[in-house]
Amino acid sequence: MIFPSQRKCMFLHFGQPLSLDIECLGDKLVEQLVDRNLVHEAADLFGLTVEQLAGLERMGEKSAVSVVTELQRTKQAELHRFIFALGIRHVGETTAKDLAKHFGSMDVLMAASEDELLAVRDVGPIVAASIEHFFANAKNRTAVERLLACGFEFAPVVQSVRANAAIAGKTFVLTGTL
To answer: Which helix (DSSP H) or strand (DSSP E) does residue 51 occupy?
Structure first.
């Protein structure tokens, strides 16, 4: 069972600047949403209506429209921010970036074994076990799948390429028709 105070912290982490950066998701709004049982998990945020929000304290229709618009904007996210927003134990911003670069998609990350996780830069046994345990938990897995079903679209993950010393600093001109 998750207590209301834990849910509030989870929503604040989910919306913080290093996570999905949901500007409108502040303390007062989260408190009202949880206290009125409008949201129980992160996916519930994306089902909120203008009417539900407009009925909250200090929230008019114009503000409610802004909140819904902001929530829709956050569905265009970077994969590492989404991973960090999940609040997986021992997974900070840097580890989330490394996981996103290594696996490239949530489906691949969710299916990764502990050995595959250990192949990620700076992921040791404790972090790998924590990630595997998170995705092995049926409630967590369902929560992530519900979030993905909300229509998240992730920007392509850019793989960093080490420059070969023989070609580092050189300029190449490619001509022709593609």
So the answer is: helix 50-54
